[in-house]
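can u pls check wat happens w/ magnesium ion
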Amino acid sequence: MFVLKFGGTSVADQAAIVRLVEIVRASGPQSVVVVSALGGATDRLLGLAAQAGAGDADGARENVRLLLERHLQVAGVIADYGLREDVERHLGEEFGALARVVSALAVLKEVSPRWLDAIAATGELASSRIVAAALESRGLPSAWVDARRVMVTSAEHTAAPPLMAETEARMRHELIPHLSAGRIPVLGGFVGATVEGVTTTLGRGGSDYSAAIVGACLGASEIQIWTDVDGMLTADPRLVPNAKVVPQLSFDEASELAYFGAKVLHPATILPAMAKNIPVRILNSRNAEARGTMITASRPATGRPLTAVASKRNVTVVNIASTRMLMAHGFLHKLFGVFEHHGTSVDVVTTSEVSVSVTVDDVRRLPRILEDLTAFAEVTSSSDLAVLCVVGEGIQGDATFVSRLLQALGPVPIRMLSQASERRNITIVIPDASLPAALLRVHDAFFGESADVGRGFSRAEGDR
Ligand code: ASP
Ligand code: MG
């Protein structure tokens, strides 16, 4: 059994849904389909929620109307008249309710996280109905499944973690009978509900995560993430035009890459798949012939130390120095406690005997964090930095890798450098302005025409 997840661009319009139907047909009846909202719909929904919060009832309602219009237009892909009429009625009801909600919220001038979830969920609830009917009308027996009945989450609105035991029980109970009867279950990703039935969402980009959870709960043989690129690439193609598709990745490599900016896959996706050892394949719905990227527990060796180079721009470094760190225990605990207290995660960490440097991506709470740190340490911060992270299972077996990496970077000033003892990645922080050139140089050295993949690829004596 396969789980096929289609992202926003793969359900964006009628033509995309026609392609989706043919992909599902080729996959066969033992498939579950998980869909995102129509491309851009979630942004629109959050935008109109913000309008309502600002008291602009007319503006928000007008945007609800436009969004309904778009969905009705896309629903034109449903070939069967009766099925289409049914979906049109549901869309009318859903968006009608949404218009009433935004009107009320505009009076209150406040949108709580709970309402934000209810509003955002409209996108996946609507797209999944359209897709289920489109499949059915083109000869593929399908069943729309309300994601809120099967994805059970905590009540942490806008980023609610799923409750796995409850979710697995519900998924098996609701989805397996459809599969046994030869029907393809179709559900919206991203959306869930609490045990009490209050609508929640898993967080932006969460449909990948939904698909992986469905796969893990049903013991799927493969989770396919259908998107609009040919797979994971060796580097960001906006910065490295000759980036190539990576045919195979390990779960560990994929999670490093997902965290450091490879937008193709939501970072959490890997976890349920990893736990159940289910392969994840990234495929292009506009180019179904391409082989894509296969992610598995272990992958065949390629002879290259590197698998890909990830990068993240607009990063801020916080430097925390304390003379008291000398011989003081509990300093790191205290320091990270400040970040935790402000709900801000740090990505890269380096330490010396008297100082710690961390990178943060989300700087919204930075002023407060700096203030709290100042109570017990000397603190400075610098922005306009970028993270360059080289990832590859082959790094650990390559004794000369680091020296070749530094050579490739050349004159780029390095602000931070970190290598975990697993040596699956090396992370470097450099000025943001240097990133484009640095990426090109590193990519060229390890993936370019002249990359000498064999050189230095030897396992040093006594080296793991
Ligand atoms: N539609 C949601 C978003 O745009 C979830 C997803 O597509 O993964 O964030
Ligand atoms: Mg996505």
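Confidence is low (pLDDT under 50) at residues 452-464.
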